[in-house]
Amino acid sequence: MQTIFRRVRTKFYKWTERPLNIKIESSVSTVRLGTPYGGWILPEKHLHNQSVCYLVGAGEDVSFDLAVADTYGCVVHIFDPTPRAVAHVTALCGNLAHGQDTPCSTSPTGIYPTYPRLIVQYIHFHPLGIWNENTTLRFFAPSNTANVSHSLVNLQQTEQYIEVPVRSLKSVMAELGHTRLNLLKIDIEGAEYQVIESIVADRIEVDILCVEFDESAANHFDRKYIARIEASLQSLINVGFHVIAKEAKCHNYTLLHERCL
Description:
Blueprint: H1 2-16, E1 30-33, E2 40-43, E3 53-56, H2 63-72, E4 76-79, H3 83-97, E5 123-126, E6 129-131, E7 135-140, E8 161-168, H4 169-176, E9 180-186, H5 192-201, E10 205-212, H6 225-237, E11 241-246, E12 252-257
Helix pairs in contact: 5-6
């Protein structure tokens, strides 16, 4: 009965979901990198071989991460404590080093594109979560066991969890010797609100921010999810970010700081 109720409620929320009251500035030229599932929109000609890129949330599709490393020749720091994500990226790096293909179920071809072996030197993987403090937290499993993404905020209200180390963005940057991020991608199953708050509070300099707001008509804490997304985006706009792109069928946004316009 509860499942039927959730389905009916989801359909109703989707039918009544209003568009966000956020201006998207379309004057910036953009390019999309990665698979239809795992790809992201970026502003053109803003990254280079010395760019500092933090890509938070890997799952089993790091096509965007590989494309950034290959396109711009820069190091990408990938963060994800999910066991399946750790296993996937570890296997991928081994295959890249040996010139072998790696399966990617979300790729149209079923495998990742072929990259030169040297690309593996650009991939730095960190098996930890990004949060607003340094601690250990419960990481809740998805309701569908076929899916990989876990949630620190228990977005799907499940009971199964693992415990994982999490770090604040500020502390990770200090440890890695970075004072500014040219690109930050956060796809972290509902925990994006807390991380965005820490970016603003800690005055972390980010040039390009790609963020997925995982709350939607299908997964949400309550009916106020649209207002929460708007408020989070507005907090970024208030400190100089401009929303330059949104994926058509999801709450994936790309923002560019005004100092880079």
